[in-house]
Design a protein that fits this description.
The chain is α/β, with parallel strands linked by helices. It is built from eleven helices and 14 strands. It has a six-stranded parallel sheet, sandwiched between helices. Helix 5 packs parallel to helix 6. The longest helix is centred in the first third of the chain and has 25 residues. The N terminus is likely disordered.
């Protein structure tokens, strides 16, 4: 009998130790890494992603452990960084720039158990998902303000890289402006960089010299806002609120809130329900796009119109890329009663009527 009791006690002890082991394993934090194309700084695309990372830490606490690498060049450097993070035990990796797509796919193939989330891309696999915001919705609303606030009917736009993501924003900005002021024309200068304050400043100065009195951008630095402030013109913040760099110039900012998406994905990873082979696109409806406080210089009737159009986009009654749409050569691209599809928006490679010049090859 004694031997039987001892055997049972040993079995119970073993089960208890196994249980403790399981608890210890369950308590291991989910390691989550972020790859940033620019410096975090205090504004812009990377800054917004890092705010969401910090919100993720605050919400999930000890259940996760995050890390990041900033200012990662697209190409071979990105591949090395992503591979190092995958080999370092991170089981969920966010690669936050369009130019990281091919590098992400290549590393994902080598690490099939690691989950990858790629921002603004269009390729997915079993362990790669893509995500983006319908940022053109906010760009359209900036255009509405620009069309009402311009006195020269010339708007300026600083483009980063001539890819569909950026072309969408230029076109939406112009469509929004021309919806309230058909005389408007948008001039574009490309700087071939996501973040280059020197080039952005030079582009802003050139656009103003060409007659633009309202500037927008698809770049990360506040250079355009600073130049507009110096020259007595208007500008918009992009990706984050840039009001402090030019309080008189800054009309509003088109920003993103990535925190909801990051929290959803991290919870899926923790629960074992994460899946690849999907693309998620959120916009105003999902509160992934946030337009910041309007400049007091915006007249009350314009502010009211802005809010009405924002609500219309959120509830689906206003579709920025609904026809009829012509390109800037006059050719009909989208007939009345139709709208650009998701696939067409993803491959957009033409300027709408009202944008001057041509897209660089």
């Amino acid at each position: 009998m004694t031997r039987w009791r001892d055997t049972c006690a040993a079995l119970w002890l073993g089960l208890a130790l196994l249980s403790v082991g399981h608890v210890a394993l369950a308590a291991e934090p989910l390691k989550v890494a972020f790859v940033y194309v620019g410096p975090i700084g205090d504004g812009g695309w990377t800054y917004q992603h890092d705010l969401a990372r910090l919100a993720l830490e605050q919400t999930l606490g000890s259940r996760i452990k995050t890390s990041y690498v900033e200012s990662v060049a697209e190409g071979a450097d990105a591949e090395r960084v992503i591979r190092r993070l995958a080999a370092g035990g991170n089981s969920l990796i966010f690669t936050t720039s369009f130019g990281f797509m091919e590098s992400t796919l290549k590393v994902a193939k080598q690490f099939p158990k690691v989950r990858f989330e790629h921002a603004t891309g269009y390729k997915t696999t079993a362990n790669v998902a893509a995500y983006e915001v319908r940022f053109y919705e906010g760009a359209y609303l900036l255009g509405v303000l620009a069309g009402k606030m311009t006195r020269t009917n010339t708007l300026g736009f600083i483009g980063s890289h001539p890819i569909p993501e950026v072309i969408r924003n230029i076109n939406a900005f112009t469509l929004g402006a021309r919806s309230v002021n058909p005389k408007v024309q948008t001039k574009v200068i490309w700087v071939d960089a996501w973040y280059n304050p020197g080039k952005e400043r030079q582009a802003a100065e050139t656009l103003i010299a060409q007659g633009a009195d309202v500037l927008s951008q698809n770049t990360d630095s506040p250079a355009a806002v600073q130049v507009a402030q110096e020259k007595g013109k208007y500008a918009f913040g992009w990706d984050s609120d840039m009001r402090k760099y030019g309080p008189k110039a800054h009309l509003t900012a088109n920003t993103q809130d990535w925190s909801r998406y990051y929290l959803q994905v991290a919870n899926q990873a923790l629960a074992g329900t994460w899946t690849g082979n999907r693309i998620t696109r959120w916009g105003l409806k999902e509160k992934a796009i946030v337009l910041t406080q309007l400049n007091p210089a915006v007249p009350a009737d314009v502010a009211q119109l802005f809010e009405q159009k924002k609500q219309a986009i959120a509830d689906g009654t206003l579709v920025p890329f609904a026809g009829p749409l012509k390109d800037n050569s006059g050719a009909l691209k989208v007939p009345a009663g139709k709208a650009l599809t998701v696939d067409e928006l993803t491959a957009l490679n033409w300027y709408v009527d009202g944008v001057a010049g041509s897209i660089p090859k």
